[in-house]
Write a structure and sequence with these properties.
about 300 residues, alpha+beta, Beta Polymerase, domain 2, Four Helix Bundle (Hemerythrin (Met), subunit A), Arc Repressor Mutant, subunit A, 3 domains, five-stranded mixed sheet, two-stranded antiparallel ribbon, 13 helices, globular
Length: about 300
Amino acid sequence: MSRLDASGLFYTDLFAREKGLTGLVLVSDPSAHHTLMDGMDRLVLAVYEELADKRDTEHWMWGGTRILVRRLTKDALEDEIRHGEITGIIQWLAGGEVLLDQDGDLERMRESIRMWPASIKERKLLCEFSCFAKTYSLTKRYLQDGSVMDAYGHVLLCLQHWANLVLIEERKGPEPDVWQHVKRINPGVYKLYEELTANEETEEQRVRLAMLACEFSLLTKMKSSCILLLRLLGSRSDGWSAADLMHHPELSGLPIDLELLLFKLVKRGYAREVVKSVREPVSGLCEIRYTAERVG
């Protein structure tokens, strides 16, 4: 690999000619970011005010070096961070070398990843908890159907979502090597992962053991993980319709299973259903609305 490539000068010179470019990030160490490389030697994240060209992903070869290029707008990158998902793009931004930052936006975004404000943390918790709850429900269904192998695969995902919750609670992330970090922060969750993957008991026994722990975690983490949704529910005494919640600016676009979350919050007693009469088109038809349960 040439010194020019290693220093990033090749990329700054090449992309500087592109119209509207405001930021450029290079990930150049495959060993440090092995989960992101996808067989590539370099990752380049190019950020623009507007993106007219539809070629948002390209694969290049230069002097034997395989280069993956991703282009996106500044607004799209902001959305990636705001919506709370630990994506590859966010890991590039967090771990890569900033070669160009015309307006200082990339450094500001990197800082927001390192030190999440409460609003971002709440979104991340809600999204991850929704995935945790959904995967748990699927695992439970597979067990009931006797599909042990499917249940095993899904309970492994359950533990992954639980591990992500642990990191988000500590404002850690994005972390490509989740289990190495969880092992240090929460050895109990890591031990469950070890027992599921390396225990001498049957697969079904291991799955059922992990499921018991996951169920307990879902119950104990529900209120703190759903604080954003509960705050919204508590802002209307007459309750929210499912449609109003789905289109609320703080929830719109978030990858959550709203119906499942509402069901679990009601069942746990953190939220309640308010039945409102609907005059038309069927007499006696009622709409279910949701509000936070006021305790104490």
